[in-house]
Amino acid sequence: MNILILGGGGREHTFAWKINQSPRCKNLYIAPGNxxxxxxxxxxxxxxxxxxxxxxxxxxxxxxxxIVGPEAPLVAGIYDFFKNDAALQAIPVIGPSAKGAQLEGxxxxxxxxxxxxxxxxxxxxEFTQATLQEGLDYIEQLTPPxxxxxxxxxxxxxxxILNDVAKAKMEFSAMxxxxxxxxxxxxxxxxxxxxxxxxxxxxxxxxxxxxxxxAKDYKRIGEGDTGLNTGGMGAVSPVPFVDxxxxxKVTDRIIIPTVKGLAEDExxxxxxxxxxxxxxxxxxxxIEYNCRMGDPETEVVLPRLENDLVELLVALAEGRLGxxxxxxxxxxxxxxMLVSGGYPEAYEKGKVMTGFEKVTDSLLFHAGTKQVNDKxxxxxxxVLALTSFGKDFKAALALSNKNAALIDFDKKNYRTDIxxxx
Length: 422
Ligand code: AMP
Ligand code: GLY
Prior knowledge:
Blueprint: E1 2-7, H1 10-19, E2 27-32, E3 42-43, H2 51-60, E4 65-68, H3 71-75, H4 78-83, E5 93-96, H5 98-105, H6 107-116, E6 124-128, H7 132-140, E7 146-150, E8 159-162, H8 165-176, E9 186-190, E10 196-204, E11 209-211, E12 216-217, E13 220-222, E14 226-229, E15 234-237, H9 244-264, E16 269-280, E17 283-290, H10 298-304, H11 309-317, E18 332-340, E19 363-366, E20 369-372, E21 375-378, E22 382-390, H12 393-404, E23 412-413
Parallel strand pairs: 1-2, 1-4, 2-3, 4-5
Antiparallel strand pairs: 5-16, 6-9, 7-8, 7-9, 10-11, 10-16, 12-15, 13-14, 15-18, 16-17, 18-22, 18-23, 19-22, 20-21
Bound molecules: adenosine monophosphate (AMP) and glycine.
Residues 217, 231-232, 290, 294-295, 297 line the site of glycine.
């Protein structure tokens, strides 16, 4: 098979590494890819949002499957674009339809989806400019922290948690006034849930499902979970506190009703559902759905998956996912993300990276990197993920930490305390 992966981060490098191990994969293309994906296939410099360019590539290279890494092309309807084009409709796209992707693309949509089937999640209300005053009155009687969420996609920045009612009212007005553009024309105000987060990844064909390894990521820039939110600074899998009892609750109350709900609501969904969860008093609640895999969670989830991923995805596309059995390594995997100094705020690019050859006992997944002549240079905020295995997460982390010190570039930053709360 000829396979095309859309995206160019650490998640997509991990997909490329895994897909390339399958005997079923003949030619692999990654668009746009990065300096790391080249080792597993051919990079093609087009944007996943340029559907016409993706179409041309799919036809020129006789592509048999498209795996969509990031959410933006899914929310923009790349699945539907393929389905509605006579020349493309035979090519399976791994990912939901635009309607299905609303689980991530609209907080109000996902809250209503959950409410309809009593899937445990924080209580909420939604407001627009027309109900601004009601929203302000509502906030007035809340006990902080106040959770404000832009309805639409806001590059991971659309959630604000405020410890002060006056500040919350100001931010709420600013959001409805276009702080996040069209994404915050509608704002969801949620009850604050106090607990510890983890994530479950479900592969579904809209009828059957399979659960991939569980993971936990670390989103804040600073040690001890302090400072600004990032895309993710590291991850571990499995998550020690997620035992069988908790996982059974997740399955019964969340995974099964979610998959059933996709069918009930006629959401065409053949892809990954990333369920962000929080444990409060040993009960699981949904924080959010994403319509794709996580980054850097993928960097620990796929390395623990022992199945041939192409087999699984072919089964998914053919509606045979229910016949598959997931095999997961007993080993723990951890990843540490090296980032550019300044990230998640302004940072510089183009820093020459060295030390790759010194790392022999971690997997290196490139995120924001680029090949320039014979050098690899930084090309983003999140630069490189170092994934390691161990008998438990501590043993794995010792390797990731040791190797994080061996890769060098100007203003390198990373967290040395991933897993500190486990
Ligand atoms: P989201 O984009 O919805 O995942 O939110 C980003 C982050 O905000 C989550 O990973 C949580 O850490 C936090 N968060 C979101 N919703 C809540 C909530 N209702 N209660 C507490 N924390 C939340
Ligand atoms: N690491 C969180 C995400 O991919 O959304």
